[in-house]
């Protein structure tokens, strides 16, 4: 038997950034590979952000007997902190003054509200509304003027009634004419109020 010598070439070390395209891969497999790559990129970005945001956790329990349990606790704490951190857009956020790194920065509430413009009215409807409003304002002005005029008339009638009453009182008075002015000089101030000049 002839033995053929087959040379096996060692594969060249592949840079992890480069992707090798194999022609025999189906489209479904390509999509899965792309998804995996995107997930890896997202995980890498998340880890980069977490490294910037997550504070170093103090290892206070190193002196205890169970070192393995302590390591598990520390990893749990880190994972809990990582879960609480959300992706922040824009510049990296430093450590807050309050020390509460797990709190997410507040966003403007007004930007979240979407206001409906409502039903759009036609030009004819707007014209009709304007005319109705104009008529209503005219009616209001008429009513106000009428109430003002009524008040003025009422005050005038009250004044006239007072004048008539005073005249009637003067007519019905019994008057004593004083011809001698020397008597007036002897009167006190209280008595003077009772007298009147004609």
Automatic annotation (TrEMBL):
InterPro entries reported for this sequence: CCDC86, Cgr1-like
Taxonomy, superkingdom: Eukaryota
GO biological process, alphabetically ordered: rRNA processing
GO cellular component: chromosome; nucleolus
Chief location category: nucleus
Family per record: Belongs to the CGR1 family.
Basic and acidic residues bias: start-end ranges: 27-37, 51-62, 125-160
Biased composition, class Acidic residues, residue ranges: 38-50
Keywords: Chromosome, Citrullination, Coiled coil, Nucleus, Phosphoprotein, Ribosome biogenesis, rRNA processing
Chain segments carrying region Disordered: 1-105, 124-160
Function: Required for proper chromosome segregation during mitosis and error-free mitotic progression. Involved in nucleolar integrity and required for processing of the pre-rRNA for the 60S ribosome subunit.
A Pfam family matched in the record: Cgr1
Organism: Dictyostelium purpureum
Compartments it resides in: Chromosome; Nucleus, Nucleolus
Full protein name: Coiled-coil domain-containing protein 86
